[in-house]
Amino acid sequence: MAMPGDETAFVDAARWLLEDSENLRRVRLNARQHASRQGWTAIIDQFERQLRDACPSESSKTLRQTSDKTIRPVSSMPLD
Predict the structure, then answer these.
(1) Hey, CA dihedral for 44, 35, 37, 4, is it positive or negative?
(2) Range scoring the smallest mean pLDDT among 38-42, 49-53, 75-79
């Protein structure tokens, strides 16, 4: 909806969604469908990459030490 760092485009997109409930509904549905196709492993990997990028220190290299553990959601029901 907006490129990272483009605050003006982000605000414009947020206003567009607030002003048009049908567009908001479609964007929410598409986001939910996209997230459901990702799988927990991909989501966790992406989250860990973002953490490492945000704080590229020696301590961030230890994030993957728990990779042998399986993390599962409590529920697959969407939050609403």
Answers:
(1) negative
(2) 75-79
Position 40 scores a pLDDT of 85
Q: Which of 78, 67, 79, 75 is nearest to 41 (CA)?
A: 67
**SS3 of 8, please?**
helix
Quote the mean pLDDT of the chain.
80
- Which tokens hold the place of 39? 């799988």
**The amino acid at 79:** L
DSSP assignment of 14-79 equals: HHHHHH-HHHHHHHHHHHHHHHHHH-HHHHHHHHHHHHHHHS-SGGGGGGGGGTTS----S--SPP
Q: How large is the average pLDDT for residues 51-78?
A: 64
